[in-house]
Amino acid sequence: MSLIPSIFGGRRSNIFDPFSLDLWDPFEGFPLSSNLANVPSSAHETYAFANARIDWKEMPEAHIFKADLPGLKKEEVKVEVEEGKVLQNSGERSKEQEEKNDQWHRVERSNSKFLRRFRLPKNAKIDQVKASMENGVLTVTVPKEEVNKPEVKAIDISSYFFLSSQIASVSSSVIDS
């Protein structure tokens, strides 16, 4: 991993290198002589939004999906179930940032989207899916159908003496006939 920031604000995207997806910039806030190296902070936000990570946890009673979507409002996020078997989480954000100082004036616009799909298992109760959003964390709960346990019939256990007397009475009736 290079310690020199990219002058175009690009990040490497290698899924096998855990540091390539890191959004922390150790050079952020340092005065740099080149205006090209002055990457707006909105670029980092856009990158984080476009690469939204979603965790899927299976509990005994439900499947829980959690997504970190910092800065998003619930109106900007959609949770849908397609064809009764695919959970789709998506969102879109448009942002305009304006900065002014003594030397220049700049307006930046960005538009970010994300879309993630998950095939739900057969035991998911599609009609009872619930979603909530708090502090930039989207939580989707998909309840599971209860597993029907096979019916178990208890069998009484008799003593050997009881069985031997029945066998004796059956054998004597066979001999008498």
TrEMBL record:
Q: Which SUPFAM superfamilies match?
A: HSP20-like chaperones
Predominant place of localization: cytoplasm
Write down the Gene3D superfamilies for this protein, in alphabetical order.
Answer: 2.60.40.790
Q: Which domain of life is it from?
A: Eukaryota
Locate the region Disordered.
84-106
Q: Where is the composition biased (Basic and acidic residues)?
A: 92-106
GO MF entry, a single one:
unfolded protein binding
What subcellular compartments does it reside in?
A: Cytoplasm
Q: Which residues form the SHSP domain?
A: 45-160
- A GO biological process this protein is involved in? protein complex oligomerization
What UniProt keywords apply to this chain's record, in alphabetical order? Cytoplasm, Stress response
Q: Provide the Gene Ontology terms for cellular component.
A: cytoplasm
Family per similarity comment: Belongs to the small heat shock protein (HSP20) family.
* Annotated PANTHER family: HEAT-SHOCK PROTEIN 20 FAMILY MEMBER (PTHR11527)
- Please give the name of this protein: 17.8 kDa class I heat shock protein-like
Underlying gene? LOC107781170
